[in-house]
Specification:
By secondary structure, the protein is α+β, with helices and mostly antiparallel strands. It is built from twelve helices and seven strands. A five-stranded mixed beta sheet has the order 2-3-1-6-7, with helices on both faces. A two-stranded antiparallel ribbon has the order 4-5. Helix 6 packs antiparallel against helix 7 and helix 9 crosses helix 10. The two termini are 22 Å apart.
Length: 343
């Protein structure tokens, strides 16, 4: 299953078709999503089996360890965002532009109010000087009327500025809410509504910095491709949602994230690895005992299970901790699936 073995897969008669088949085999064996970025990675890897990328993959996958998406990013292949991510990015760019416009709008209002205030001060000063010069020649009523006129004009300008400021404040509040929603969406998986990989990594960093005791588990749905092949991706999506819900319900107080594809991750905080093991194994047992059926025909899907690797995060950075948990997951798969390996 190792990437090195995929690199050396035997050639057929048609080089182009052979390369295409090897790319598919590589992605399947490594359980990588079939997307343009991963396809391009596999193409560069397999088209140059003796190149530096192939050597790096061989080193990473030595002993049967499979690649993760992070490994691909670390190796320097640019991963293009999915269509949904591009849409979210464009939406975020639009909100940033709106925010900039709001800031400029507030600045304009403040500048205008300052100018109005300065103008009011100059008008009052000029009026006071005129009153002093004309003392005894103009009636008090006329002078009072002039001051009242200046004051009334200033009040009208202030009310106009206040209305503009109130409208801008209301728009800023709505924009702030949209920005908060955008930030939340950027950290949430749209299918399962669970936190995504980015949120998981940020939570790990924050809690590790705070000195929390952490354990990391990586879970992968067993034989998930066969579910998609037999019943279609819509059913596969429902299975992923069900697994996510079961993990969340079984691990209350801990962060459950969809890490990508059929892979989930759990961040246990404030508990020992033995407690984390019992909790995760109970979740595994709960999932394996459920009997899933097609809602349209009531046809049984068969047993749905997941395998998992669990490790203590003490004394390790995120990459090393995750890779350790991922290797344990691979060991669970090798051991027959529907089991948990701890290390």
């Amino acid at each position: 299953m190792a990437g090195a073995r995929a690199v050396r897969w035997a050639s057929g008669n048609d080089p182009a078709r052979d390369l295409y088949d090897r790319i598919g085999k590589f992605l399947f064996e490594q359980r990588l999503d079939v997307n343009p970025a991963n396809f391009a990675f596999a193409y560069h890897l397999l088209a140059e089996p003796d190149g530096p990328l192939a050597r790096a993959v061989q080193a990473l996958t030595d002993g049967g360890v499979r690649l993760t998406q992070r490994d691909i990013e670390t190796l320097g292949c640019e991963v293009q965002p999915a269509e949904g991510s591009q849409t979210a990015a464009k939406r975020a760019e639009g909100l940033v532009a709106q925010t900039q416009m709001q800031v400029e709008g507030f600045a304009d209002i403040v500048t205008a109010m300052r100018a109005e205030t300065e103008g009011f001060g100059r008008d009052l000063e000029a009026s006071a000087a005129a009153i002093s010069r004309s003392a005894g020649t103009r009636s008090a009523a006329v002078m009072v009327d002039e001051v009242a006129g200046i004051t009334a004009a200033m009040l009208r300008r202030v009310r106009t500025a206040e209305a503009r400021l109130e409208s801008a404040t209301r728009e800023a509040s709505e924009l702030r809410q949209k920005l908060e929603e955008a930030r939340d969406n950027a950290r949430r998986d749209p299918l399962t509504d669970l936190p995504n990989r980015r949120a998981f990594e940020e939570a790990f960093a924050a809690q590790a910095t705070a000195g929390e005791r952490l354990c990391v588990a990586v879970c992968d749905v067993d034989h998930f491709k066969s579910v998609n092949d037999r019943f279609g991706h819509a059913v596969g999506d429902r299975v992923l949602k069900a697994i996510g819900e079961a993990l969340s319900a079984s691990c209350p107080g801990h962060l459950v994230a969809r890490y990508g594809g059929e892979e989930f991750a759990v961040l246990f905080s404030g508990v020992s690895i033995d407690t984390a093991r019992r909790t995760l194994d109970a979740a595994r047992a709960t999932v394996s005992t459920k009997r899933y059926r097609l809602r349209e025909s009531d046809e049984p899907l068969g047993e749905i299970t997941f395998s998992a690797g669990l490790t203590d995060a003490a004394g390790g950075d995120y990459n090393s901790v995750y890779q350790r948990a991922d290797r344990l997951l691979y060991a669970a798969k090798t051991a027959g699936r529907n089991c948990l390996q701890v290390g």
